[in-house]
Amino acid sequence: MPEKLMCPIHQPAPLLPHSGHMVLLDCITDYGEDYLCAEAGVGAKHLLLQNGSLPALAGMEIMAQGIAALAGCHAHNAGEPVRLGFLLGTRKLNLFADEIPVGTTLAVRVHASTQDTTGFGVFDCELRWLDAPAEAKAKLPSDGLLVQAALNVFSPKDGKAHL
Fold first, then answer.
1. Is the torsion defined by CA of 22, 34, 90, 41 positive or negative?
2. 40, 49, 88, 92: which has the fewest C-beta neighbours closer than 10 Å?
3. InterPro entries from the xrefs (predicted)?
4. What is the pLDDT of residue 91?
């Protein structure tokens, strides 16, 4: 059995079914049986930038990667391979900003609300800003909350999608 992962995890890429620039998480700061906390930076070369900033709607992908990272942590700890997962959609999505400026550090938190044995799950997720460029802070929500959602996901047990 592999050694259990300890936080902080500064190289989350091996825990995600993503590669290269598509890995949007920088660090996993904490995780447990049904939750994960991570940080992500919005750099000048961020894959999802549009017109020089990150659309708040793109926060869904960052939160979905938090869910994938949680599954990856559990897979690693069980000695299993990382499996593919699919973001199916959301039953609620609240955006508290239109865009997130370059230079912002984000905190993502995901918490399993429902998971079943077939691989379907619903996760309550939040994306908050921790730090931002001084000139952008006044334009961001003062409580830090940028995006809140319940994300519906599916991860087939054999790693393949069956239609």
1. negative
2. 92
3. ApeP-like_dehydratase, HotDog_dom_sf
4. 85
Burial of 38 per CB tally in 10 Å (0-12, 13-18, 19+): buried
Any bridge partners for residue 100, and if so which?
54
pTM: 0.94
The first and second tokens of residue 139, run together, are 């334009």
Q: Are 77 and 4 in contact (CB under 8 A)?
A: yes
Question: The domain spanning residue 50 has which CATH number?
Answer: 3.10.129.10
Between CA 55 and CA 106 the distance in angstroms is 13
Region 105-112 average pLDDT: 98
Q: Residue 135, class by beta-carbon neighbours within 10 Å (0-12 exposed, 13-18 middle, 19+ buried)?
A: exposed
Structural domain including 57 reads: 13-154
